[in-house]
Each structure stands twice: as structure tokens, then as C-alpha cells.
Amino acid sequence: MFELIIRLSRYLFVFYIAYFLWQGVRYIAAERGLFEGKSYGAAAKQRIVIISMHITAFLILAYEPGGLSFNPAVLIYAAGSLLLLICMHLGASKLYKGSCTLIWNGVYFLLDTGLIMLWRLSPSLAQRQLIWFFVGAFAMFLVPPVLKIIPKFEKLEILYLTVGLGLLCTPFILGVPEYGALRSIRIGTMSLQPSEIVKFLFVFYLASAFRKKMGIWHIITLCGVSALYVFILVLQTDLGSALIFFMTFMVVMYVSTGSNILFLLGMGAMSAASYLAYNIFRHVRVRVAIWQDPWVDVHGIGHQIVQSLFAIATWGLLGSGLTLGMPNHVPVVARDMMFAAICEELGSLFGIGIIGVYIMIFYRGAHIALRCKRKYYSLLAVGFTAMMAFQTFLILGGTINLIPLSGVTMPFVSYGGSSVLVSSLMIGIVQWIFMYYSQTQAQGEEEEYA
Amino acid sequence: MHDMKKNIRRIFWLYFVMFLVVVVYLGNLILIESATMINSTFNPRLNRNNFTIKRGYIFDAHGNILAESVRSGDIYSRVYPYGNDFAHTVGFIGITKSGVEARHNFTLDNLDFEIIQRIRREFIDGSSLQGDNIHLTIEQPMQSLAAESLRGIRGGIAAIEPQTGRIIAMVSSPDFDPNNIGGIWGDLVADEENSPLLNRAAQGLYPPGSIFKLITADAIMNHMDNYEDFHVECAGTAHFNGESLRCFDARAHGNMNLSDAMKYSCNIFFAAAIIEIGYDKLMESAERMGFNTPHPFDLEFVISRFNMDENADIGEIMQTSIGQGRTLVTPLHMALVTAAVANDGIMMEPYIVERITSHTGRVKWEYGRRQTLPRPSQIFTSQSNADKIKEMMVEVVAGGTGTAARVAGITVAGKTGTAENPAGDAHGWFIAFAPAENPKIALAVLTENTGGTRRALEIARNMLEAYFE
Predict the structure, then answer these.
(1) Is residue A110 located within the same domain as residue A94?
(2) Do residues A181 and A144 both lie within one domain?
(3) Which of B177, B227, B384, B416 could join B453 via S-S bond, C-beta 3.0 to 4.6 A?
(4) Looking at the complex, does the CB of residue B5 fall below 8 Å from at least one CB of chain A?
């Protein structure tokens, strides 16, 4: 009986995400005047979908076979996390007045999907994730006041550059090896990847540098500096971050200069660098070899990706139904392979829907960049959106073996403190830019272009 | 600034295309690639439903039940009514899986209209959840006969319908009882001498011996303009550049042309002819025949190997031309070659699953429904060559080395082979098809270490007699 209900619930989950995305489309259509109706109505419906999904999923997770009894611990967790989501929403609408509702809803949806899957995979991880969730939300709420008190922070490019590079080099001195890679430092009991903090400094630096009109030497210097970042990351065997940094640089440069030649030159340089890296670094060759044929060593290095493929492909489009799959057979599933777990139990259609939610967020990120009147803010929005977009692409593509797997996390969904914190802060900054412009526009204030 | 807006839009479309690629790739993974991938033995989900639902039936071509799930309490156990006979084809489930049970595991476990089945079980009549059924091409009487005829020796048999590639029977000996796989598993794995788990028909590699002369004859006909006038005087033993070669029992066959040499299996003629036209011509014929190239097939199989290169000395060339050397073949592949001769030189892709039906009998998949039939996998040779080889093979059974396989009222075409091997006495081969005028069945029989072809001929005759009864 219970199995029947779970099987039926698969259709419900697909309905939830389809309805959620449909309301997103309606929101945008209404905003553009293509559609009769109020956009806030659509946004409210999206939030109702999230709450319904939350309740459905946790009722399934809490159910104890035999009779009509539910595990109280799960119910408490479900209520607590729902409360936190609601508080986050209230806080956001208070502290980020006039920010983009669609992005918030997308983030809530992803966070909630992450919590559901995490509880299913490992309740203890889900509990810890909730703490990170709280920390992330709190940090995010600090973004507007902090950015307000720093005057003219676009002028600090030298500071961003030196601090960024300095931080990035700390693992060479203070580093602790983790999975054979030297990319973390240890503070107390916490291990921290400096590259996560440097992401912010890097985007601030790029936006500051590119906001001005530039001569050819300036651009060459910028390329050199960015190449240095990427090179250090490759040395730390953090290939995923190296690619994210590089692509972010390319995107900001393209948006700022609009030069196709520079873009092509950059891609050419990347190809050459990839070729060199492939020949020089063993870990690069190993990654590529697994990608080309994960079946060669199914018990060894190919194990993770092969198990991920099984999880995704075994159950077809609708998945096995929550709790009926075997996602725990995928190694490091909560950190690296959340997408495989989602596709396995909630269905690949739901997984495709998740991709749709990300597209919605990045679409709104682009929308924010378009509305900015000052180049600096526009480039900030472009930079942070690019960081998240490429990170998402790398992990989704890696999970399905479209591209070599590089252990980056899935924003808002994967388990991990720094992942949640960094993603929240990025969204916070992007939203702050939007809010800033909505407010200044309302005041009729004209900004000059630098 | 206007430019920048254009650039931002372009970058968004870049993201969009990136994620579209992810979606398309994911769809391909789930809808197309998954079919073969998820049956991997490394997939922990393989056993998910094996014993908790009524797994689908496996039927033969006539509807006989080859495998069924029987309920005992809350779980089901798998029963194989024909026991040993289908050990290597239907296979088994349990500690591990093999055969069709492994290849189509998820089909057999798939619940058609699952929601309806579950509602029925919960609220209406408590009936079992039933998986989809598989209908094989194998004909149980032929299969059982073939299995019976190999008992006591090691060997493999494959029988095919030449025009379609449909597998009629496929057995391997020694076999085992899949009903008791849990109890005998340890012994089966430990028995390295007999390796009973190996499906010799599709996975056993053997030197082909004289049956390879079909391929040699094809090369000769293709590359010797006047091959009908090419004669060799066989004295039982011959020397080429210091390497010597003997015919079977050193029998002197006298003056031989191609047809006679085939009929009496004269080694010296074939070696002399290949030395005349060059080894590379032989390689060309062999590769056209499917050596060293994989083809799709539902059961585990190995590819026949033909190894000869420019470094081959005269001894190796001679040996290879008569089916010794480093050439290794499977009985299945030899049956396919025989079937190709029977089918005007066109080799068909072998297949073993005819149909998949739901528990209600609705046909969900059928061989050939999605593509035109028959499905040729290779053009082995021209129709005229095939006809010539066919004539020669008819002669072999009518008055040559294969007379023991004659069947009253039916023209049988065949070829014997005695394959020398390092493991002991020679292996006996017999390949045949019948009726020669309008072939209905082609088969390859291999008997390990029987010293000669008598047993193989007898088995082939019995099978042909049974088939045309």
C-alpha cells in the first residue's frame, strides 16, 4: 500500500516542479505585460508549491510501515526546516526590498530539494546542513548593510588582487592534504578552501578592472593575472575551480569588451593550456581517462561515476520513488552526486526540472545585469552569475559523464558548509545589486558611467 | 553600454545552450544507453525485485515455459522446468545472473502498468505483481535433443535459421541444473577442468580445422581465375620450402581439384592453392566473414580470431589455410558462416529474443518491428561462390567425409573438421545445413577431444532427422 502511494507520489513531484516552472514563466510574462495577471500571484503560487512538496516529501520520509504512524523526529525536522525557510523568506523580503522574487523562490526550491534528499540519504548530514543553512541565511542578510558602509568599493582593485592571490597561496604554506590534494587550510576543527573566499575577491577585482575603458596593455595584464589564478588552482589540483575562474574571466571580459577576437583567443589559450596540463599533470590524465571510459576500472577510479550512471539510468524518467532507490551506493553522494540521487528517486524528469530552476535563476541574473546603469554593478552581476552557472554545469555534466568529473558542489543542493555559504552570499550580492537599482531608480537618481 | 546589453544576452544564451546539452545528454542516457548499461553486474539495483514480485515468464518459440516464478509465502522462487537443457541460454538468477535472465533482468522485473497492478493487488484480488514475459526463438524439443546428445562429453552446438539468424538451439556441455544454483555454485566455480558455467557454443574458442576450408575455398574462387583447372597431386605428404604438411592419416588423395579436395578434405590442395594466391587473400575472406569484428548479440559471446600478418612464415600460412595455425572460432560463429553459405552468401545477425509481452499478453517489443527484416550483418561472399561451396558441401555428405550425416529424403550439405589442439585428442567438428535446395536449418557441432568427427556427425544427423520429422 505504502509502496503504491510512493509510486503515485512520483507523478506529484513531477507536477510540483512543472507547476513551479510554469508559474515562473507566467511571472516573467506578466512582468513584461504579455500576460493578463499579477506577477506576485505567480510568485505566491510558487511558494505554495514549495511548501506542498516539503510536506509531501517529509510525510513519506517520516512514515513508519505498519499502521498510520510517523516518526516524530522526522516531523520535527520537517517543521523546523520549513520554519527556517519561511523565516528566510520573511527576512529576505524585509532586508532585500525590491529584489527579485523569482530568484528567491528558485533558491528556496533548490534548498528544499537538497534538504529532502539529504534527509533521505543521511539524517545526520541533513541536520548539520540545516545549521549551515542558518549560517548562510544569516551571512546573506549581512550583505546589504556591509556593502552600504564600504564607500567606493570599486576603487579597491589592488586590494582585491593582492589579498586574493595571497589567500589562494595559503594552502602551500598552511595546507592540509585532503584526498591527496593540497587545497584546504585548517582553522581549529574546520577545514576551509581559500579558493571559495577568493571567488568573491576575484569577481570584485574583475568588475573593478573592467569597468574602465582599457588599452591593450591593460587587457594583457589582466589576462596574465587571471592566468596566474588559474595556474595556482591547477597546481592545487582543483581543476573544477580553475575552470570556473577561467570561464568567469572570459565572460566578464566578453561582456565588457564585446570582442569576439579576444574571446576566441582566450578559448584557444585554454585549449593549449588544457593540452599542456593533460601532458604535465597525472591527475588531469586520470580524470580524462575515467571520463572517456569509466568501465575500464569499475571497482577503482571509475566506481563513483559508474554508480552515478546506474542510479540515474536504472529507473527511467519517473525514478524509483522517494526511499525506494539505492542512492547510497553512489560514493560521496551527498557532496558530489546529489543530482544522481535526485534523478534516481524523484525521477529524471524532476532532474530536468531542477536544471530548469537553475536556468530560471541565471536568466534573472542576466536580467539584473541588464538593468544596471553602472558598468561596475552590471559586471558584478555578470561575474557572480557566471561563477554559479559554470559551477552548476560542471557538476551536472560531471554527474552524467558528459564532461570529466571535477569535485565541485551543486549550488544550494549539495551537502557542505562552504558550498551553502558561498552560494548564499553570491545570491545575496546579486540581489543587493538589483535592490540597489530598484531603489535608486525609484528616487530618480542618475548614475554616471565610468 | 548598448553593446554590453547585447553581450549579456548572448552570454545568457550560452548558458542556455550549455544546459540544453546536459538535458539532451541526460535524455539519451535514460532512454537509449540505459538499455544495455543498467544490466551490468556492477549495478547494485539488479536484485531489487527478483524475488519480491512474480518475475516474467521465459517461453520458447512454441510457448513452452522455460522459466517461471513460483510463490511461496511472501517471496517467489524461480523454477526452470527443463533444468539443465537451458542452463547456458535462459541462464539463472541467484548469487549472480547469467543468460537471458541477466541480459533482460529489468524487462522481466518490469511491472507493466504498475499503478494498476498495485491497485488491483491492494484493493481487488490480491493478485501478484507480474513482470513482463520474454519469448525466445529457441525450440525446446531441438534444444533438449541437442543437450541430451552432448551429455558425457564436452562440446557445444548452435543451430540457426539461415534466412533470418533466428537461433533454434544453443547448448553447451557440461551443463548444470539452474534450479539448484545456490547449492552447486561453489562446485561449478571450482571445476576449472570442465568450466561448466562457460557457454561453449558462444564463448568457447577452438581451432576450426577443416571446416575453415569453406573460407579458404572462397578466397581461391575469388582470386584464382582458372581455379577449376588448378590441380594438385596429393601424395599424402608434401613439402613447401622445407615445411612439410600431411593429409589426415597421411592418406594420398591423388589428383585433386577444388571440389574433390573439399569432398575428401585434402589439406595439401588448400595449402598449395593459398601459397599460389598469397596469404593476404585468405585474410580478406576471413575478415569479410566476421572474424575479429564484434556484432550485437543478446548473450555473452566472444569474437572469433583470425591472426596472420606479413611476418607469417610458410608453415603458418599452410596451417592457417587448413584451419589450424592461430585461428580460433566459436561454434556459434561457425553456424553463422554455414548459414551464410546456405543463404546465398549473406550472413544474418543472430538473435534469441523474439518478443516481449506484458503479463496481459500485449506485445511490447518484437524482433524486426523497428527495422526491415531480415537484418544482414555481413556479406560473406557472392551468390555464385556460395552456390559452388554449397555444391561441394553436398558432395561431402553424399560421398565424401560426411556420409555418416546422410538423412533419408533430404539433401544435407556439410563439412567435417578434425582440429588438432594442445589439450589432447583432436576436436571433432561438423557443420551442416539442410535441405540443400531450400535450407531451413544450419548448425555447427563441436565435440571436444573425441579424436574424430564420428560423434559430431551422429549428433548432426539426429538433429536434422528430428527437425524434419
Answers:
(1) yes
(2) no
(3) B416
(4) yes
The reply to whether A450 and A320 lie within a common domain is yes
Are residues A298 and A265 part of one domain?
no
Residues of chain B with C-beta less than 8 angstroms from the C-beta of A329 = 44
Which residue in the block uniquely carries the three cell numbers 523569482? Answer: A102
Q: pLDDT tens, B47-72?
A: 877 888 899 999 999 999 999 999 88
Among A310, A375, A400, beta carbon nearest to B38:
A310
Indicate if A109 and A165 belong to the same structural domain.
no
- Going by the DSSP 8-state scheme, the letter that residue A99 receives in this structure is -
Please indicate, yes or no, if residue A428 is contained in any of the structural domains: yes
Same domain? A96 vs A130: yes
| Dihedral over Cα of A110, A116, A122, A123: its sign | positive
CA–CA distances in Å: residue B135 to residues A225, A252, B93 = 66, 60, 18
B3 Cβ under 8 Å from any chain A Cβ: yes
Residue B336 has pLDDT above 60, yes or no: yes
Tens of pLDDT, residues B177-211:
999 998 899 999 999 888 999 999 999 999 999 99
Q: Percent of chain B beyond pLDDT 70? A: 97
Domain boundary, last residue among A254, A280, A306: A280
A160 and A127 in one domain?
A: no
Lowest average pLDDT, out of A172-186, B260-274, B352-366, B406-420, goes to A172-186
What is the distance in angstroms between the Cα of B303 and the nearest Cα belonging to chain A?
A: 19
Long-range contacts of B239-245 (CB under 8 A, 24+ apart): B240/B271, B240/B272, B240/B275, B240/B314, B240/B318, B241/B314, B243/B313, B243/B314, B243/B315, B243/B318, B245/B271, B245/B318, B245/B319, B245/B322
- Residue A146, in any domain of the structure: yes
| Same domain, yes or no: A298 and A446 | yes
Per-residue CA distances from B94 to B47, B102, B271 (Å): 9, 10, 50
Assess if residue A99 is contained within a domain: yes
Domain that holds residue A355: 1-150+294-450
Confidence bin at B8 (pLDDT 50/70/90)? very high
Q: Does residue A229 fall inside a structural domain?
A: yes
Q: Do B26 and A348 touch (CB under 8 A)?
A: yes
Is residue B378 over pLDDT 80? no
Mean pLDDT for chain A overall: 88
pLDDT of residue B43: 87
Which residue in chain B is spatially nearest to A256 when comparing CA positions? Answer: B4
Chosen domain end from A245, A280, A315: A280
Chain B residues touching residue A370 (CB < 8 angstroms): 5, 8-9
Give me the residue from A4, A313, A378 closest to B34, CB to CB: A313
Among candidates A313, A325, A386 on the partner chain, residue whose Cβ is nearest the Cβ of B37: A313
The reported pLDDT for the residue numbered B287 is 87
User: pLDDT tier at A216 (50, 70, 90 boundaries)?
Assistant: confident
- The predicted model gives A3-9 an average pLDDT of 90
Residues of chain B found within 8 Å of residue A309, distances taken between Cβ atoms: 29, 37
pTM beyond 0.80: the answer is yes
Q: Is it the case that residue A158 has pLDDT exceeding 80?
A: yes
What is the number of domains present in chain A? Answer: 2
